[in-house]
Amino acid sequence: MTLVGQQPGHQGVGQQDPALERCTAGPLVVLTGAGLSTDSGIPDYRGPGAPARMPMTYQEFVSGPAAQQRYWARSHLGWSRMGRAEPNAGHRAVAALGAALVITQNVDGLHEAAGTPRTVALHGRIADVICLACRRTTPRAALQQRLEDANPGWAAAHADVAVRPDGDVDLEDTAGFVVPPCLDCGGALKPDVVFFGENVPKPRVERCYAAVEALAGTDGCLLVAGSSLTVMSGLRFVRRAARQGTPVVIVNRGTTRGDDLASYKVEAGTSEWLTALAAVRAS
């Protein structure tokens, strides 16, 4: 692995950056993580300085109304902030790369908002809600209004709580919060995202594997941006690329679980580096 570092305060990406040169020509598959959205005001899970935390698991969520009340009370507050986030320069750069596929582990929908073509939201989108009983999906915005109507004053009373990366907040006391049921069948509602302990739908995984496998024998590469690759849902694509001999470039502040598989590791934030790459690929 070749390590490419940048000094704090660096104002430009060097044109002799070997990782940048490696991604300049040929097809790209891009895998993004929470680090790409930090410049949009959404904190990440495992970046430098990020507090240790354990998101609610799928098994806990489906255990009953108490867990669902706790989740929705927090998510109701977090959504009002995440929903206002806008794509940053990194998202816009990814949209301009002309990648064969963009695989994102993020649920914030900012790649889609930036107009990124050929995107797979591996873990779903927080802007959608699904009923666990009848499986109908509905917009989160509609549920947000129902939550506001059922819990007047809740947001104002907890306006100072800290936001977490997956759209909820750091709040312990959720007693009394009212969670509306599905309007169609009365079932329990869940954000249409993949929780820890839940499997990514197989068709999504297969589409991502196919895109990575299509890089074999080309001059392309797999570009990882803003992900620590701690969970297997993203790391498996890095492993597949490395196994077939496809170069892997990782742009991330801090170590990642895929560093030993990378051809190049860039210790930098994503926005500036991706913007430089988009400019070079467009020239």
TrEMBL record:
Keyword Transferase appears in the UniProt entry: yes
| Residues that span the membrane, as ranges | none
In the UniProt record, does the keyword Metal-binding occur?
yes
- Keyword list, A-Z: Metal-binding, NAD, Transferase, Zinc
Q: Which InterPro entries match?
A: DHS-like_NAD/FAD-binding_dom, NAD-dep_sirtuin_deacylases, Sirtuin, Sirtuin_cat_small_dom_sf, Ssirtuin_cat_dom
Give the residues annotated as active site.
123
Annotated binding of Zn(2+), by residue: 131, 134, 182, 185
Q: What class of enzyme is it?
A: transferase
What is the protein's name according to its record?
protein acetyllysine N-acetyltransferase
Species in which this protein is naturally found: Nocardioides aromaticivorans
